[in-house]
Sequence to fold (302 residues):
Amino acid sequence: MEKPWLKYLKMPVAFKLHYLDSGSFSLRVDAKRYAKKHNCDPFKYYDTKAFWNYVDDYCEFIFKYYHAIDYYSVMDVIPNAERTWKSQLYMEDKGLNPVPVIYWGTDIKWLERYIKRGHKYIAIGFYGNQNRPMVKDWLDNVFSMIGDAAGRPTIKLHGFGVTSWSLLLRYPWFSCDSASWLKVGAFGGVLAPPYRHGSFVFSEPPYIVKCAYESPARKRSGQHYYTITSLEQRMFRDWLDRIGIPLGRMNSSGEIKKLGVVNDHSSRLTANMLYFQELVKNIPPWPWSFRHLPKKGFGIRL
Fold:
């Protein structure tokens, strides 16, 4: 039985850019283990030989595959600006030019420092709940600071792990990454845009339609493709038709009759990737203007 997503692998694909992640999020786990073992601050891990050996290996990997990498992140330390700066200088001394990383909430002086040093592409990292008001306030200040007279960004900003829809669509990012497509698909879901006035819209957060046949949600009313209304089912099928991914079919005994999102993990992942491709088509070309209107009345902006 041929998998429906195979046709996308057979199509000629031209990637515009390759961005290499340093793996700092995974190293954070190592730092916590080190701290527990030695009863110390997790940041002490970043003084160890093991950490700096990792940085050296990361640099060697970049040199080895330099021809295939357009941008690569500094070996950042979440969310420590001083230690990330140390890594930046270390990699630059080796002859590399990594993309600097600062984390939301960091003193704005770090962004200014990287800009003054001539960096035109800087990454913003996130941790914790991205929907907190202070995150948006901080980003408002950042995008206002880098904007020209018309509000267009004068440098490129990459958003690491942007999962909040309000942050993704509010700001003129040059690029972003997120594992939402993978996580949603792994838990049996498919991302689908809302349907408004006869068309799909991408200015609102997508729905997560649980559709895996084996999902426990199938037994709960209104929480699975099989238990939502017939109108909602039809709109979901219309979306799948638009992106060319089949629904799939099972027989009464639970056996697969046709592969699709209800019974094939890879089909769900492909559907979610295609959702993001459609989203990109509906976002204005970079750079578009960001206009931040100050809050009225009394208040303190940190």
